[in-house]
């Protein structure tokens, strides 16, 4: 074990680790010294990621299974404890898309996306935080515990063709902040990233990689995950980051844009109508609770040439 690496001695579980961002983040955590528990649906791709990590001198065990299953969350923590004696880092990354406009979406398309993303984040978080809380109560001190969740700018934008995905990713941000608050005293730090990367999920949208360095390579996202999982992550919790290309942006929380107080203590509909009118004078209205500031952060945004 190389003691000088930032994650030396740490144990990290990564969901959806067989491909794309998860595979890259797992490799980066291993390169930073962590021992890995890799989750994804069973298959050769997951074995391949573990083989690569081992070939580079790292350690990896597998925990295949549907991340939204209660038993998979339980098994993820059990594998970490059995194989390495504990768990320090949980990277929730597994995901699927079933894009469709809200008026055409099937029950199955809605359920599948909410299940894998939102329930999938919850189930692993449930068992990891229970483990950390127990450890903290046993030792009487906060433990080393990091959660990196995966949200998306689809939530920030209210992506029109992805009502299921945008809702799941919004839920993940709320889960992240709730976890950060609820588990802080045990040492848990929980943050969310909104990545952009050229993967199987986004290949159709982004097209083929350019010649030379790819600004949308998943490798551009992995350093933030390594930092949040590492010692510096002790001072960061309940935050949401946008990360891709050469940029890492820290989002601010939602703010109160305007507040209206009734002159006589209680609004009538007519008085409220008159009070709100100046703020909502444009027509047709554009969605207001939307963050578009992240779009131009780097030149290589969706749909633009890198
Ligand atoms: N690529 C992007 O630009 C982008 C943008 C925003 C958010 N994200 C998020 O990043 C994460 C990774 O996406 P990606 O681009 O690497 O996609 P990807 O399709 O390459 O990888 C997703 C992985 O999740 C696995 N997975 C799916 N369902 C699972 C389940 N039930 N249990 C366990 N594993 C399961 C898949 O097998 C796959 O290996 C997702 O949460 C995605 O929503 C990606």
TrEMBL record:
PROSITE patterns attached to this UniProt entry: ADH_SHORT, PEROXIDASE_2
Keywords of this entry: Oxidoreductase
Keyword check for Signal: no
SUPFAM superfamilies listed in its UniProt record: NAD(P)-binding Rossmann-fold domains (SSF51735)
Gene Ontology molecular function: peroxidase activity
Pfam families linked: adh_short (PF00106)
Taxonomy, superkingdom: Bacteria
Signal peptide: none
Keyword Cell inner membrane: no
Family designation: Belongs to the short-chain dehydrogenases/reductases (SDR) family.
Name used for this protein in its record: 3-oxoacyl-ACP reductase
Species per Swiss-Prot/TrEMBL record: Couchioplanes caeruleus subsp. caeruleus
């Amino acid at each position: 074990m190389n003691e000088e690496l930032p994650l030396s001695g740490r144990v990290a579980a990564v969901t959806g680790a067989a491909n794309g961002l998860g595979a890259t983040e797992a490799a980066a955590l291993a390169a930073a010294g962590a021992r890995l528990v890799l989750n994804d649906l069973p298959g050769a791709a997951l074995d391949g990621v573990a083989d690569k990590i081992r070939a580079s001198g790292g350690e990896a065990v597998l925990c295949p299974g549907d991340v939204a299953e209660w038993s998979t969350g339980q098994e993820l923590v059990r594998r970490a404890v059995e194989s390495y004696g504990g768990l320090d880092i949980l990277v929730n990354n597994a995901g699927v898309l079933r894009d469709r406009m809200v008026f055409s979406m099937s029950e199955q398309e809605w359920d599948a996306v909410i299940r894998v993303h939102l329930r999938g984040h919850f189930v692993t978080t449930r068992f990891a935080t229970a483990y950390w809380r127990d450890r903290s109560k046993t030792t009487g001190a906060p433990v080393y515990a990091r959660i990196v969740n995966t949200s998306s700018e689809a939530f920030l934008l209210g992506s029109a063709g992805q009502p299921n995905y945008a809702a799941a990713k919004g839920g993940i941000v709320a889960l992240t902040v709730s976890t950060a608050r609820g588990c802080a005293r045990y040492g848990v730090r929980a943050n969310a990233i909104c990545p952009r990367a050229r993967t199987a999920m986004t290949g159709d949208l982004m097209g083929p990689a350019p010649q030379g360095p790819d600004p949308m390579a998943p490798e551009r996202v992995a350093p933030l995950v390594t930092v949040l999982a590492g010692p510096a992550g002790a001072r960061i919790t309940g935050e949401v980051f946008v990360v891709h290309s050469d940029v890492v942006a820290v989002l601010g929380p939602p703010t109160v844009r305007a507040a209206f107080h009734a002159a006589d203590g209680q609004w009538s509909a007519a008085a409220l109508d008159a009070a709100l009118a100046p703020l909502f004078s444009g027509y047709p209205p554009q969605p207001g609770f939307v963050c578009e500031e992240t779009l131009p952060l780097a030149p290589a945004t969706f749909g633009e040439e890198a």
